[in-house]
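Reply to dn_fold:

You asked what the input looked like. This is it:
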Amino acid sequence: MSNGLKPNVITYSTLIDAFCKEGMMQEAIKIFMDMKRVGISSNEFTYTSLINASCKAGYLSQTLKLKNEMLEAGVGMSIITYTALLDDGGSRRSFQGSASLGQILTGKYALPLFMGMLRLRGWRMLQNF
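and this is what came back:
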């Protein structure tokens, strides 16, 4: 930048999240790719924003790719990330018949989240997977 300031992970993640919330996935992905190009590592917030938006848009393959990339980069999934993956607004529609719970639920929050969802929604929730 001309004034000597350089964007960091917080700057990039904030822009990505804003584009995601506005449903502008192409722009969010462009920022994400630029972030990688300049060598800034993504964090849990960055990936969760992208995962949430791609789930809501019904982009199954992109969602699973982002989840796998997140784990390969050593970025842990939080309860917020799992919630985004299993949220009624997105993945229950987009994952139907395409992904197993095993593809989605990995890591330390998997069992507590799964049990909590069963308790709240009952066995009916499994019909969508």
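Residues 88-98 have pLDDT under 50 and may be disordered.
Hope that clears it up.
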